[in-house]
């Protein structure tokens, strides 16, 4: 198994970190608040450790499990410490109206992370299409949850896909990094369903391949 570093201590960090420790991965939790990092490491167990914010992450895979509003600042602060890492981007740059994006029309969240990160870091969009508590719960009626991913580097996507499979989830590759824009729209779709149809966050979005 591998080491996964998770920057963040919220819902996505807890969900992916918990699944990762159960799968036998070494998990490093990193937060600007060391106490929060340690608390989450203790919560998920499995030998998870608390790392130091801004230091070189222990894992080759680094999950950016923090809000989009702060992710660019964090990536910029890390700078060369993220060089050579695969950065997994689960963020959604949704505006306060929950109907639009804070990014301009000519770009998208994952692209802005690419522009901010070191040139030799590789960004793969993943884990943004499910609510964190749905991810944490795992398979639904014996069926694995789908994790949609996009990226330009085939080897990096293969590594992220293998990690997703190890968590008991199903990776579905939607194509190159520009498709991350569509995945970010997935968040708006989920919010629309939440507001107008389902009326709760107790649902998962995926693909039925049985037909």
Keywords for this structure?
211 residues; eight-stranded mixed sheet; 7 helices; alpha/beta
Q: Could you walk me through the main structural features you see in this protein, from its secondary elements to its overall organization?
A:
With 211 residues, the chain is an alpha/beta fold. The protein is built from seven helices and eight strands, in the order E-H-E-H-E-E-H-E-H-E-H-E-H-E-H. It has helices at 11-22, 34-44, 68-78, 109-116, 132-137, 154-166, 180-198, and strands at residues 3-7, 26-30, 49-50, 61-64, 86-89, 122-126, 146-150, 170-175. Strands 3-2-1-4-5-6-7-8 form an eight-stranded mixed β-sheet, sandwiched between helices. Helix 1 crosses helix 2 and helix 3 packs parallel to helix 4. The mean pLDDT is 96.
Largest sheet: 8 strands, mixed
Instruction: Give the number of helices.
Output: 7
Roughly what is the average pLDDT, rounded to an integer? Answer: 96
How big a fraction of the residues is strand? 15-25%
Helix/strand-derived category reads alpha/beta
Q: How many strands in all?
A: 8
Give helix and strand order, one letter per element, not per position.
EHEHEEHEHEHEHEH
The span between the termini is 34 Å
Helix content range:
25-40%
Uncertain segments are: none
Topology, element by element:
Layout: E1 3-7, H1 11-22, E2 26-30, H2 34-44, E3 49-50, E4 61-64, H3 68-78, E5 86-89, H4 109-116, E6 122-126, H5 132-137, E7 146-150, H6 154-166, E8 170-175, H7 180-198
Parallel strand pairs: 1-2, 1-4, 2-3, 4-5, 5-6, 7-8
Antiparallel strand pairs: 6-7
């Amino acid at each position: 198994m591998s080491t996964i570093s998770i920057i963040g201590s919220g819902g996505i960090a807890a969900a992916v970190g918990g699944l990762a420790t159960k799968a036998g991965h070494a998990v490093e939790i990193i937060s600007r608040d060391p106490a929060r990092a340690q608390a989450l490491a203790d919560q998920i167990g499995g030998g998870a450790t608390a790392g130091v914010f801004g230091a070189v992450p222990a894992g080759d895979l680094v999950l950016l499990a923090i809000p989009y509003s702060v992710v660019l600042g964090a990536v910029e602060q890390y700078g060369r410490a993220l060089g050579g890492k695969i950065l997994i981007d689960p963020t959604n740059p949704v505006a306060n109206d929950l109907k639009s994006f804070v990014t301009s029309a000519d770009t998208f969240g994952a692209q802005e992370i690419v522009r901010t990160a070191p040139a030799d870091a590789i960004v793969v969009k993943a884990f943004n299409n499910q609510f964190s508590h749905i991810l944490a719960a795992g398979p639904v009626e014996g069926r694995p949850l789908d994790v949609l991913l996009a990226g330009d580097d085939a080897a990096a996507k293969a590594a992220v896909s293998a990690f997703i499979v190890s968590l008991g989830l199903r990776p579905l590759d939607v194509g190159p990094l520009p498709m991350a824009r569509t995945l970010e729209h997935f968040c708006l779709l989920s919010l629309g369903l939440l507001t107008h149809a389902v009326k709760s966050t107790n649902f998962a979005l995926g693909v039925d391949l049985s037909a």
